[in-house]
């Protein structure tokens, strides 16, 4: 690709004016940001003409790959017809209503419970703020206003607004801004590699980890607990895949105490784990499902909450006006792009392909990384995968965090044409769902190369 961008100029504008999310501003200014200028399929290019295989799908979102004309066409057509209108004052628009019905039809029914309603936002964070508002409203309307506490998990990620950052279990986020806000509390995550006892099986650990929820409910007081929220597989926390026993036991516990269950599927929905919605894979029955990212493959911001019958019935029949919403709730262009994106996913059969073909193929290739001297616990679930970089493979001894071993590995990835994310000492991927087997092979070969280079540097 010809280099038509003046990299130094863009970097200087960037340094002078753009405060990046989750970034040490001073550190970035000293380095200069990598300027991404173009993308096609599973690859992105920087302003110096370097091509990188994007094994993170942007930020877990570009599921159908880059450069899909159908999505650009849908946005263009909708912008010409109706670029914007609000949905506050008893008005709607064609894409928003059509998409809501489409999402309702895609969400699997479990034990007769269905999701007939959608509340729209523009992001995962906003959607989880909406969840907090809906959960509180639900219990108020049922005459149980004391049910305010939402239980979440350490190292879970639910977004970055005040409520969503509070639901998130990241101590480094809580340390800035007096978080969490009141009535949000956390339990330990189901991270087998870190939290299992010696000799404990994965299934045993899953039951014990779910038991931490029951212990917390009893500590808080069952009549004060409003909801439990969790990601089916923790993404930003480092792709933490729960044992098979975990979610069914969580379901048993929330049922026992009558509390609401929120499945935050901002990453896991729309085929990423091989299903339209991941609760189906793990066999649980949420009351609310958060979505964003993959609904538009990240081409335009859109998020929302699938509202199950249990909550919708109360909000609709007993609630009167719900004093909550966003300027861009049901944005026509975003919803039109989402419809075109879901159309691609359906016509290319992406959830099923991930479940029956691409996911198992990635799993076999990824598990082979366990042979590498630097790697422990390499595993995947659908089209997310993670591994731990360890100092001593035999004992599982971890590296000194000050060494930032993950960042070291990420540096080699960037230098060798691969985007892989580091979360502490975990290296993670969430590639586009449109990869071929040959591209999976290419990605895994690149990962191996970068592991080798990291290993050599550490020796
Ligand atoms: N929930 C989960 C599970 C996420 O992974 C994210 C973002 O990565 C969010 C919520 C927040 O989404 P957003 O960044 O669109 O606000």
UniProtKB/TrEMBL annotation:
<dbReference type="Pfam" id="PF00202">
    <property type="entry name" value="Aminotran_3"/>
</dbReference>
<dbReference type="InterPro" id="IPR015422">
    <property type="entry name" value="PyrdxlP-dep_Trfase_small"/>
</dbReference>
<dbReference type="InterPro" id="IPR015424">
    <property type="entry name" value="PyrdxlP-dep_Trfase"/>
</dbReference>
<dbReference type="InterPro" id="IPR049704">
    <property type="entry name" value="Aminotrans_3_PPA_site"/>
</dbReference>
<keyword id="KW-0808">Transferase</keyword>
<dbReference type="GO" id="GO:0008483">
    <property type="term" value="F:transaminase activity"/>
</dbReference>
<protein>
    <submittedName>
        <fullName>Putrescine aminotransferase</fullName>
        <ecNumber>2.6.1.-</ecNumber>
    </submittedName>
</protein>
<keyword id="KW-0032">Aminotransferase</keyword>
<dbReference type="InterPro" id="IPR015421">
    <property type="entry name" value="PyrdxlP-dep_Trfase_major"/>
</dbReference>
<keyword id="KW-0663">Pyridoxal phosphate</keyword>
<dbReference type="InterPro" id="IPR005814">
    <property type="entry name" value="Aminotrans_3"/>
</dbReference>
<comment type="similarity">
    <text>Belongs to the class-III pyridoxal-phosphate-dependent aminotransferase family.</text>
</comment>
């Amino acid at each position: 690709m010809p280099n038509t961008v003046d990299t130094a100029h863009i970097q200087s504008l960037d340094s002078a004016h753009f405060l990046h999310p989750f970034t040490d501003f001073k550190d970035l200014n000293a380095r200069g940001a990598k300027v991404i200028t173009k993308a096609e399929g599973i690859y992105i290019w920087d302003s110096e003409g370097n091509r990188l295989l994007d094994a993170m799908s942007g930020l877990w979102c570009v599921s159908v790959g880059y450069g899909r004309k159908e999505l650009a066409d849908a946005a263009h057509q909708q912008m010409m017809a109706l670029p914007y209108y609000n949905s506050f004052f008893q008005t709607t628009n064609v894409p928003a209503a059509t998409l809501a019905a489409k999402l309702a039809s895609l969400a699997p029914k479990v034990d007769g419970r269905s999701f007939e309603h959608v509340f729209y936002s523009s992001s995962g964070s906003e959607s989880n703020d909406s969840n907090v508002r809906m959960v509180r409203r639900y219990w108020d309307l049922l005459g149980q206003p004391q049910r305010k506490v939402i239980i979440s998990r350490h190292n879970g990620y639910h977004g970055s607004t005040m409520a969503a950052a509070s639901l998130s279990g990241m101590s480094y986020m809580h340390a800035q801004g007096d978080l969490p806000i009141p009535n949000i509390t956390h339990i330990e995550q189901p991270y087998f590699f870190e939290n299992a006892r010696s000799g404990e099986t994965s299934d045993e650990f899953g039951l014990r980890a779910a038991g931490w929820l029951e212990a917390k409910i009893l500590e808080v007081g069952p009549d004060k607990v409003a909801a439990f929220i969790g990601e089916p597989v923790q993404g930003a926390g480092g792709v933490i895949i729960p044992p098979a026993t975990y979610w069914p036991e969580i379901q048993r516990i929330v049922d026992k105490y009558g509390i609401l269950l929120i499945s935050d599927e901002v990453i896991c929905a729309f085929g990423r784990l091989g299903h339209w919605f991941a609760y189906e894979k793990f066999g649980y029955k949420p009351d609310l499902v958060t979505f964003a990212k993959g609904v538009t493959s990240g081409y335009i911001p859109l998020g929302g909450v699938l509202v199950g019958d249990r909550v919708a019935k109360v909000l609709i029949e007993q609630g009167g006006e719900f004093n909550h919403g966003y300027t861009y709730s049901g944005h026509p262009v975003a919803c039109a792009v989402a419809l075109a994106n879901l159309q691609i996913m359906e016509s290319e059969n992406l959830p099923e392909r991930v479940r029956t073909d691409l996911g198992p193929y990635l799993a076999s290739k990824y598990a082979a990384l366990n042979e590498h001297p630097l790697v422990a616990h390499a595993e995947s679930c659908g089209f997310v995968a993670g591994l731990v970089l360890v100092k001593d493979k035999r004992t599982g001894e971890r590296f000194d965090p000050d060494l930032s071993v993950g960042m070291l590995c990420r540096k080699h990835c960037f230098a060798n044409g691969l985007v892989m994310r580091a979360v502490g000492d975990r290296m993670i991927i969430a590639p586009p769902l449109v990869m071929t087997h040959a591209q999976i092979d290419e990605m895994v070969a690149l990962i191996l190369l970068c592991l080798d280079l990291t290993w050599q540097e550490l020796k």
